Amino acid sequence: MVSCTGWLLLLSGAAFCNAFHSLYPMYVGVNDEDPFMPKERDALDDCHLRYLRYGRDDLKPQTPLPPYEENREYSHVAAIGWTRSSGKIDWACMGTLIWDNFVLTSAHCTMDESNTAPDVVRLGEANPAHMQQRKISHIARHPDFAPQTERNDIALLQLDKRIIVNQTVAPGCMWLAPETIFPKLQSLVRSKVDANNRIQGIPVISSVESAQTNGRKCVSSTSGDGELLCIETGESEPTKCLDAPAGNPLQVRLLHNYKTSPFVVGIRAGSRSATSCKPAGAYTRIGSYATWITQVLAERNATAKPVDFIPAVCALRFAHLRPRVDELLMERFDEIQTLGLQVEWRHTEDFRYIVRIVWPAEAAQAARNDCAGTLVDQSTVLTLAECVAPTPEGHKPTEVLHTGRYENASLPIKSITMHPGYVRGSQANNIAVIKLAKPDGAVPACVWPFDDSMLIMRIDLAGVGASGLIGDIGDAIDDQGGVFPSHHLRAVDYLPWANCTDELTKFNRTLRGASDEQHVCFRNEQWLVPGSCGLLPGGPLQRYIGRAGSALKYVYALSLAGRSCGHGIPAVALLLRPHVPWLRSVIMEGAPGIRPQATSDSVIVINPDLQRSDECSNGDGTVGICVPHEMCLSTPERLRKGERVTLCSVGSVVCCPWGDIARNAAVNPVRKELESCETRSREFREQRLRGRESNSTEFDNFPHLAEIGWPQSNGRIQFNCIGYLITTNTIVTSARCAEAKSWKPTVARIGMLNSENPSNYLLQPIRRVTVHEEYDDNTGANNLALVQLTAHIKPTVFFFPGCLFSNETHVPARQYGVHYDGASLQLDRIFPMYDGDCRERQPIGETLLQGHMCFLRGRAEAELVRTTRCYTPGDIMVWTRLTEEQIDDAEYLVAIYNHGVCREVDDVLTATRISAYYEWIVNNIK
C-alpha cells in the first residue's frame, strides 16, 4: 500500500497502549479495506463501519523474551540422601519441597534396608551452580504407615535451616482436593546421563508426560480405599532411566499469570528398590492426607497455615519464580507493564461489553444470577434464552450491569426477545436479544455473520476469575495481586463435535438438544489453577478480525456450558451464524434510521473499479454506460422505487441504461474539471511520492490546503481559517470562515501548511467570496462559501487542486479531520455516523439538517488519552482514496466542519456534507 500523503505521515506516530490480552488479529480476506457508509443502517454486518472509530491498528508482535539462564521446571524437587561412613552420599529417594523448611516424601524414604534414616536433602540439583543442601532435623512419618501394604506411605522431613527461595529453589504446591480430576499427569523420575555430566553421582530429573489416571482404585489384597492413585503409562527407555525410587512426585502443572506452577498430586508408594523405572503403579494420593499434613506443620511450629495451601494462594506466592509459557504469552499482543489504578481502569474499560443480567428481588431463587450478556451494538445485548426466561411467577430481568472493582453501572432493559424456537431444558435455539432503554458507551463486540471455517483454530473465551491470577507479572514480585472477580479472556482450541461429546461423557455431562448444527466445542489441554477462570453463560467466544484497516473484536458464539473456561474440560457454546436471519429481524427492527426492507432486492452498490464512460451493468439485466447522474434520466425514479443502482467510482457517476441517457446533455467545463481531478493531479502525485523517497520532509506540505487571510490595521495579513483548493481558481470553505470578520478576506496562501521550505507556497489575491444564499448562522444550514482567486494558478508539485467527494448516498467510513487554529495544524481520525444514530445522540432541541452529517473523533479501544480539542470554522474532513502503487493516494474533500460541543471525545460533531452541495458548487464557480 502506498503512502496516503501527509495526513497519514503525521498520524503514524500515534500509539495506543492497553493491558488487554487477546489473540493476534486475523485477516480473513473480506473485501472492505476502504469501505463506504450509507446515510442509514441497512445491514447487520456493519460493525466495521459503525464502530470503526474503536478499531485497533496498534497491534504489533511482541519481541520474544530472552530464555531463562536457569532451569525453573524442577525447583521444588528434592533429592534425599544417606551419608555413608565413607563420606559418600547415597541419593536414593526423591521428595517435594512444600515449605521453605519441609519436604514431602514417601514413608519408605524415612529408612533404608538397615533401618537407617536419611540425614540430608539437596535442592536445585538441575542447576549445579545454585544447589542448596540442608540437614534433616526431624522426620514425621504417618503413624499408620504399614510398610508391607504400602498403606499411608507418606512422610514429612523438617530441615535444619530454611532454604533460600530463588528461581532455582522454590516450594511447590500440593493438590489437596479429595478428587484427582486430571486425566494426564507428570511422573518425575531421574534419568541416566553421561558420567562426565553427573553432579556427585546425582542423575538429571525428567518427567514422563504420558502418565494417565485410569479412573480406578489401585487393587491389592490390602488396599483400595482411595488413598492410592493408580497410574498407567508406557515403558521409558531403559538406557535413559534409573530405578524409580520411592517418593518421586506425581504432579500436574497448572496455568496462571502466563506461567505454570507445579501441584503435587501423589507420591510414589512402595519400596525404593523397585526393579523398573516404569512409573506405572501406585501413588499415595496426598489429598487424602491434607489434615495430617497441616497438623504436622502446626505441631512443628511451621509458619505455614492451611490457607497457604489453597491453590490460588500457593500459586501467587511464588508466581514470579515460575517458568512462563512463552507460546501463550507470545500469541498475545501489546503486553505493556503498567501499574496501579491505570491497569484497573483500562481493564474495566476493555470488558464493558460483557454485562451481568440483573433480576428483581421478587424473582428470589428462581433468577439466573450466574448469567452474562454480550453487547453487540451499543443498544443491544445477546445472551442465552435460558438466562432471561421468565420465572413461573412471570418475573423478568430488569437491567444489565457493568461490573468493575470500584463501581457498577446499571443499564435499564427496554425489551427482551427470546428465539421462538427455544424450549426450556433444550439447548437448541437457546438465544435471546435484550434491547436497552438507551445506548451505552461501551465498545461492543461485532456479530460474525459468515461461515465458521475459521473456527478450526484458536479463539478467545471470556470468563471471570481472580484478578491476581490473570496478567503477566514477569519476574517481579507482584504486590498488586488480588482476588476480586475480574473478566478476562482465555485462548482455547476448536474441538471436533464427536471428540467433544466423548470428552463430556467422561465427566458425566450431557446437553439435551445440543448439536453440531447450532453448537461448537472448544478446549485447552492446559489446566488452570482453580479460581483462575469460571465460565460465563451468555459470555462471548471471540477473535479480533482485521477489517477496514483496523482490528475489531468479533463474537462467533455464546458460552453455554463448561468448567474452567474450557481448560481441561471442554466448553460448549451456541453459534451465532445459524441465527443471523432471526437476529437481523430482531436487532434492526425499529432501530433509529433503519430503512424498511423493500419487497425487491433494492440496493445501492459502489463499484470503485468503474470510471466514467466504462460499460457497466446494474446486476438486474440492464447494460449501460457510466455517466454523470444528471445525464441519466431514470436514476431518480429507480432510487424512488428502490431498484438497484450501481455507482461508478466514488463520484456522482452512475451506471445508466443506454436508452435512458439524456441526449445532447451540455458539458459544463467546471464539472468536467472537477470530475477529472484524479487524472489532472496524477503527475504531481507521482512526483511527490518520488520526491519523498529522497527528501522525506520537502514534500510533506498539504498541497490542497489554503489559508484565508484578512488585512490588519498594521498592514499585516492574519490567517484565521482554512479552505480547500478544488480548481485552479476556487477554494471552498465554510460560510462562518468567510464571514469571520466584518470585512472580506483579501488573500489566500496555498501549500504553506506543514511546509519545510517557505518558497514552496503561493500567495494569491482573492477576487470574490460567494456565501450560500440560504446560509443561516443560527442553525448552521447551508454553511458553505466559495473563495475565488483573481487569476488561475499554475499547479506545481507543491500546490494543486484536490478532489470533491460527490456521492450523495455514501461517505467514506475512514476520514481525517484537519484542525487549524491560525497557528498550527493538527489531525484527527474521524468517523461518520448513521443519520439515525446522530439524531438519537444529538443534544435536546438540535435537529440534523438536510446537507449535514455527524461524525465522531477516533478513540481506539482502551485508549487512555482522550482529546477534547475542538474544530473551528473552515476545518475540513478529507478521505484518501487508495490508488495503485508508485503514486500518492488521491485526496477528496468530504465535509467541512459546522458545529458541535467538544467537551469529550465522544461528543457528536456536525459537518456540512460536500456532496449535498455539489451542484451548487458547480453552478457558482465563475
From TrEMBL:
Assigned keywords, A-Z: Signal
Gene Ontology MF: a single term: serine-type endopeptidase activity
Family, similarity comment: Belongs to the peptidase S1 family. CLIP subfamily.
Annotated protein name in UniProt: Peptidase S1 domain-containing protein
SUPFAM superfamilies registered for this protein in UniProt: Trypsin-like serine proteases
Peptidase S1 domain sequence ranges: 10-298, 359-588, 689-926
Signal peptide span: 1-19
Gene Ontology biological process terms in this record: proteolysis
Pfam family, one: Trypsin
